[in-house]
């Protein structure tokens, strides 16, 4: 088969057909996606609220984290459609447009997260390893321009998927898939397919990942040196946090992208498939969207302070409400000039002639 032509077959391969009928997929993916949605939606809403309205001043780091929260929240809000799709036996019922939007959101979220974390790692690398140069590069306008470039790059790179009907009717299974069976006609030749997938792998995953790993390794090394000299707990906590971010990054994004590359190569040139493994590892990339809010909490002092202030405010509000309820109860149980009120498990007696009141 020529690299400049396309295969003649228009039906899915046996491995893909087996995946579409696999009940493990029908159960495992909805369970994982439900967990992600339940954690990610409230977590990222709270994150956005704190980052946008309670972070002063708005720095370049905050702008990058806002972008990360927006992409995570957008993915999580579309996950219910994907949950229904897999729970319904991989049968899509929501139409072409929504199929394309949900599919594009998966890839935009993954690659946007990878590129944004790369920018955050670069910013922290400059701030910690080269602090004298940090004021030159860590500017808000640079962060805004970088985010715009990321979105334009992704929308351009994913244009073949955006302009193609990603639904496919598998007649002998009586189902309509969404993205699980790609049409060869999405690209003009085998060579185009190879360049498309390999380009995504190298430019949107491998190169940003190497930069991220390099930055965090240098950050950890610098923090260890600082910790050995000064011995403060702050540096040690920062080291552990940097290691967690690095491990999370590799765990969430490396398996899916490497398997996608291997699957594409063997599918194009050897007519084999690793699509089942690819679908399972795709869930790992979604897990980052519910992990990110917790990383903000531990990584950003200002974010942590605002989150604790929010929880403390709610706690104080509940205490005031309980106090008012107790006062109301005491006002309704006056008897012979006195009342008994239970507060914090203790019995207290009050004289009704006193003028003080919480109401």
UniProtKB/TrEMBL annotation:
Record's GO cellular component terms: plasma membrane
Membrane topology annotation: Multi-pass membrane protein
Keywords, ordered alphabetically: Cell membrane, Disulfide bond, G-protein coupled receptor, Glycoprotein, Membrane, Receptor, Transducer, Transmembrane, Transmembrane helix
Location of this chain's protein in the cell: Cell membrane
InterPro entries reported in the protein's UniProt record: GPCR_Rhodpsn, GPCR_Rhodpsn_7TM, Protea_act_rcpt
One Gene Ontology MF term: thrombin-activated receptor activity
GO biological process: blood coagulation; phospholipase C-activating G protein-coupled receptor signaling pathway; positive regulation of Rho protein signal transduction
Disulfide bonds: 99-178
Domain G-protein coupled receptors family 1 profile: 43-296
Segments crossing the lipid bilayer: 24-50, 62-81, 101-122, 143-161, 190-217, 238-270, 276-298
Family to which this protein belongs: Belongs to the G-protein coupled receptor 1 family.
The protein's name: G-protein coupled receptors family 1 profile domain-containing protein
Organism: Engystomops pustulosus (Tungara frog)
């Amino acid at each position: 088969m020529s690299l400049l032509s396309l295969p003649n077959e228009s039906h899915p391969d046996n491995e893909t057909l087996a995946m579409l009928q696999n009940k493990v997929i029908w159960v495992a993916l909805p369970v994982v996606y439900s967990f992600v949605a339940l954690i990610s939606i409230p977590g990222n809403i709270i994150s956005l609220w704190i980052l946008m309205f309670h972070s002063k001043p708005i720095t370049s780091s905050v702008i990058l984290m806002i972008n990360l929260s927006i992409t995570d929240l957008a993915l999580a809000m579309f996950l219910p459609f994907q949950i229904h799709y897999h729970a319904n036996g991989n049968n899509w019922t929501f139409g072409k447009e929504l199929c394309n939007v949900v599919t594009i959101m998966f890839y935009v979220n993954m690659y946007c997260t990878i590129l944004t974390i790369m920018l955050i790692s670069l910013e922290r690398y400059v701030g910690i390893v080269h602090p004298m140069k940090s004021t030159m590069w860590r500017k808000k306008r640079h962060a805004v321009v970088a985010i715009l470039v990321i979105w334009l790059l992704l929308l351009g790179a994913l244009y073949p998927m955006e302009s193609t009907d990603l639904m496919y009717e598998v007649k002998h299974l009586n189902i309509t898939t969404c993205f699980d069976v790609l049409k060869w006609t999405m690209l003009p030749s085998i060579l185009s397919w190879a360049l498309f997938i390999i380009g995504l792998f190298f430019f949107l995953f491998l190169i940003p990942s190497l930069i991220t790993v390099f930055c965090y390794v240098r950050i950890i090394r610098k923090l260890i040196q600082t910790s050995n000299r000064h011995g403060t707990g702050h540096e040690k906590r920062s080291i552990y946090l940097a290691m967690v971010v690095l491990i999370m990054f590799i765990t969430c994004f490396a398996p899916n992208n490497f398997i996608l590359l291997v699957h594409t190569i063997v599918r194009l040139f050897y007519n084999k498939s690793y699509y089942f493994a690819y679908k399972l590892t795709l869930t790992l990339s979604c897990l980052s969207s519910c992990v990110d809010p917790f990383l903000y909490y531990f990584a950003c002092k200002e974010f942590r302070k605002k989150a604790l202030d929010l929880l403390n405010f709610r706690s104080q509000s509940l205490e005031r409400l309980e106090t008012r309820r107790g006062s109301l109860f005491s006002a309704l149980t006056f008897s012979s000039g006195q009342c008994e009120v239970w507060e914090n498990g203790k019995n207290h007696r009050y004289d009704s002639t006193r003028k003080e009141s919480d109401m």
